[in-house]
């Protein structure tokens, strides 16, 4: 444990660059600049990453139960990452690659996903109300039972996405592409799904 604590001190000062597959479960990495650290496959479950800068390689990382308040994931590679039971208030995922990410039943309301890659992501039952999803590519993503009320979807590509029983009440959908999307039993009141 002492060796790992010493390593964490080195991480926070930017001396360590490769932590692939490392178990950092439960560690306090709040406000750490991890933007140059490769955390692919790392176990960050239960870690405190509030205010951390995570604009790096995070493929397949496990964030289950982590505190991600004010975390900066801009342009991060989060392909296949797992999220669940997280605090996300003020976090940003703008430009992040989240293809194949597992984000089921999490509160992502009001978050910034502008320009993110959500292809094939699993967002079943998640709260994306008032989130900014403008210009995202969410082709094949699963939004079934998700709450997207008042979300900004302008310029988004939602081809083949699943919105079964989703709430799309009053969404902004200027130039949004819904070709082949499943819109079964979803709430579309106030959301004009016509070509703009």
Number of strands: 0
- Please write the string of helix (H) and strand (E) elements: H
Principal-axis shape equals elongated
- What structural class do the secondary elements suggest? little secondary structure
Mean pLDDT: 93
Looking at how many chains there are and whether they match, the oligomeric state comes to: single chain
Using the CA coordinates, give the radius of gyration.
17 Å
Strand percentage lies at under 5%
The rounded distance between the terminal residues' Cα atoms is: 58 Å
The proportion of residues forming helix, as a percent range, comes to under 10%
Report the major sheet. Answer: none
Poorly predicted regions are none
User: Number of helical runs?
Assistant: 1
Summarize the structure.
Helices cover 6% and strands 0% of the residues. It is largely without helices or strands and 196 residues long.
What does this structure look like?
By secondary structure, this protein is mostly loops. Helices cover 6% and strands 0% of the residues. It has 1 helix and no strands.
Q: Key terms for this structure?
A:
single chain; about 200 residues; little secondary structure; 1 helix; about 0% strand; elongated
